[in-house]
Design goal:
By secondary structure, this protein is an alpha+beta fold. It contains 3 helices and 8 strands.
Length: about 230
């Protein structure tokens, strides 16, 4: 189940299990968003993480994320429910979003796997300058960079440690997040399209007969709007 990551005493970090990766290519090779027009911008590492509404741990994931967002807001000298103000009024300034906000620019279609779900947009540590530590199914740290997108591909289920924080990037206050560590289960249908230390024992052991859930997460998404 999703929970506050206790090794971070600030309360700003969460451990989420079996969330899905999307736009994971920059975990291997740092990149810039296509819409970026800043000539001074530097490529970064990062990924989106889809929290599927159908997964058994959905409510605990959501609760842990909101608790961590409140802690990040307090540390940033904002009211703890500032995250909700951003959610309602300035979603571009919040790393926690409705899946319906992610649409193809040409067709207007919602990205595959996003509809009805929640999404975290996370960079790697130090604003994406560093790559998060990545482990395979058996918790072995991946040293060969060329193998990263074979281990963590778009659509794979992963356990992740994510830290939230406030920033005034470009003079605009926002709540963002960084992914500190990723443990891939190397399972799941492929989709198109200030660090916290963790060790191997923070993740469950792989068991060929147990995927960690009482039932397997569905690859289908619920339709309709999402209500917090």
């Amino acid at each position: 189940m999703g929970k506050i990551y206790e090794k971070d005493a600030t309360g700003r970090s969460v451990l989420l299990k079996r969330v899905r990766t999307s736009f994971a290519e920059s975990l291997q090779v740092a990149s810039l968003p296509k819409k970026n027009r800043d000539p001074n911008a530097k490529p970064t590492h990062g990924s989106n993480f889809i929290i599927e509404r159908s997964k058994p741990d959905f409510e605990s994931d959501k609760e842990a994320i909101i608790t961590a967002l409140k802690a990040a807001a307090r540390e940033f000298k904002k009211p703890e429910n500032w995250w909700k103000t951003l959610w309602d009024d300035s979603p571009d300034k919040l790393a926690f979003k409705k899946g319906e906000r992610f649409k193809h620019s040409e067709t207007g279609e919602i990205f595959k796997g996003y509809e009805g779900n929640l999404v975290l947009v996370a960079k790697g540590p130090k604003g994406g300058k560093e790559r998060p530590r990545i482990r395979d199914r058996y918790k072995k740290v991946i040293e060969d960079v060329s193998m990263i997108n074979e281990i963590v591909y778009n659509g794979t289920y992963c356990d992740v440690i994510i830290s939230f924080y406030g920033t005034d990037n470009g003079g605009s206050d926002r709540l963002t997040c960084s992914v500190q560590e990723i443990r891939s289960w190397q399972e799941g249908e492929r989709l198109g399209g200030g660090g916290v230390y963790a060790d191997a024992d923070d993740f469950d052991d792989a068991d060929d007969g147990d995927d960690g859930f009482s039932e397997k997460p569905s690859n289908s998404s619920s339709s309709g709007d999402f209500d917090l």
